[in-house]
Write a structure and sequence with these properties.
five-stranded parallel beta sheet; 5 strands
């Protein structure tokens, strides 16, 4: 089943949005756009956003303001963000961005080859993590339903027959599920770091191929 998640492109300049859409179109993802920080926040809170490409400097609510708000809301705090800037990567901006958990900073004008590589890694990693979380929730619901039936059956017979009682088994199952989810989240964090390195390598190789 194709993903319903979308990539949100945020910039107050129409030409930048057009360049981003043109660069990412070959990936085949669902792209949507916003022209201000306020509009970006509304779109994110509606749900189904799997990645943001976000301009740093915008009138009113800046890109960093958007990320700060997102990190304080449970439903949006883990959405990966790529910040876009046309004013250079000074130390203060870089430090502030990575303190907020921004996945990467990209200079404008963009390099389409490099950007596609970063976006593909980050978006796919985020989608894999969400798919696993959905599976874990569904499995926990099935386990709870099974344990509730077992518990009702045990009460009906007046004993447990030496079996593991539901509360003990549910705790064991939950621990195993939490461990599995932690492993995948660790892998996703690794993918974010790998995206930066691979994007640089791919962009360099692409530049050599085009030379």
């Amino acid at each position: 089943m194709p993903s319903e998640a979308k990539i949100l492109l945020v910039d107050d300049h129409e030409d930048t949005l057009y360049a981003l859409e043109s660069a990412l179109a070959p990936l085949g993802y669902h792209l949507t756009r916003a022209t201000s920080g306020e509009a970006a926040l509304k779109e994110v809170l509606r749900g189904q956003v799997g990645l943001l490409l976000l301009d740093v400097r915008m009138p009113g609510v800046s890109g960093l303001d958007v990320v700060r708000y997102m990190r304080g809301v449970e439903q949006t705090q883990h959405i990966p963000v790529i910040l876009l800037t046309g004013f250079g990567l000074d130390a203060e901006l870089t430090a502030a961005a990575f303190r907020l958990g921004v996945a990467d900073l990209v200079m404008k004008p963009i390099d389409p080859w490099s950007l596609r590589t970063k976006v593909r890694y980050l978006f796919d990693a985020h989608e894999r993590a969400h798919a696993l979380e959905r599976e874990v929730r569904e499995l926990r619901a099935r386990l709870k339903d099974r344990d509730d039936r077992d518990d009702r059956g045990a009460r009906g017979h007046g004993h447990t027959g030496g079996r593991v009682v539901p509360a003990q088994r549910e705790r064991t199952d939950d621990d195993a599920l939490d461990d599995a989810l932690d492993d995948v989240k660790h892998d996703v964090k690794g993918d974010v770091g790998d995206a930066r390195d691979d994007a640089r390598h791919d962009a360099r190789d692409g530049a050599n191929d085009r030379a």
